[in-house]
Design a protein that fits this description.
Blueprint: H1 2-10, H2 34-43, E1 52-56, H3 60-63, H4 65-73, E2 78-82, H5 88-98, E3 104-108, H6 114-119, E4 122-125, H7 134-141, E5 146-149, E6 164-167, H8 172-181, H9 190-198, H10 204-218
Parallel strand pairs: 1-2, 1-4, 2-3, 4-5, 5-6
């Protein structure tokens, strides 16, 4: 996405680019087992059989928290919000006005994200602009399908209906439909398994090899 923007706006030739993706430690970011999932959900007061989406990121306006809240408002989905923003009270008030505050968990900033991923069934990130957030790789490596926007670089990793869903960041109707369609891991783990498989080659070792190859080429 960023390469395309630079080509479009600055006229840089495509052969001037080396495109190297971020990496993820899949041994650390792995799907939860039953015990981990139950413990994570109990800590956040989320029912065992409920479907929960997770939103991760500060700067709630750019990351799309308003749209995420609207997406779950008229469903039975729970929403875990990880991150901080000076306007958090406004978003809590919005959740209240939408009638979904009882299903929203504002978890604040977490040093250890794993329990939050383990409590969730999918990631929702309807961002207005995000070059390539690591949260996409982390969530997918943990076996979470992703709902994101066309202005998120991570959209490249998602085939519609296979690893998740992609739409315009402000398309609330589609976001609501995707949130309602997203199955819980207990009901159907197939989409989450596809998500983990999709990022399986993006290892730190592969990233290192690509960087070393680029450096050798330049030298």
């Amino acid at each position: 996405m960023v390469r395309g923007d630079i080509i479009h706006y600055y006229g840089v030739e495509e052969d001037k680019f080396a495109l190297i993706y971020n990496a993820i430690d899949q041994n650390r970011f792995a799907p939860a087992d039953g015990t981990q999932r139950r413990a994570a959900r109990e800590a956040l007061s989320i029912p065992e059989r409920a479907c929960a989406l997770i939103f991760v990121g500060s700067d709630f306006a750019r990351k799309g928290l308003r749209q995420a809240l609207s997406a779950v408002a008229n469903t039975d989905r729970y929403l875990i919000v990880v991150g901080q923003d000076k306007h958090q009270r406004r978003y809590q008030a919005l959740a209240q006005s939408l009638g979904c505050l009882s299903r929203v968990r504002f978890a604040g900033v977490r040093q250890d994200m794993l329990p939050c991923y383990h409590a969730a069934d999918a990631l929702i990130l309807p961002t207005l602009y995000d070059p390539f957030p690591n949260v996409i790789l982390e969530a997918m490596s943990c076996g979470l399908p992703v709902i994101t926007s066309q202005r998120c670089g991570g959209m490249e990793f998602i085939e519609q209906g296979r690893e998740g869903f992609v739409c315009d960041a402000l398309d609330i109707a589609s976001l609501m439909a995707f949130a309602a369609e997203m199955p819980s891991r207990e009901q159907d783990p197939a989409m989450g398994a596809s998500a983990r498989q999709r990022v399986s080659t993006y290892t730190p070792e592969n990233l290192s090899r690509q960087l070393m190859s680029l450096y050798r080429q330049l030298l």
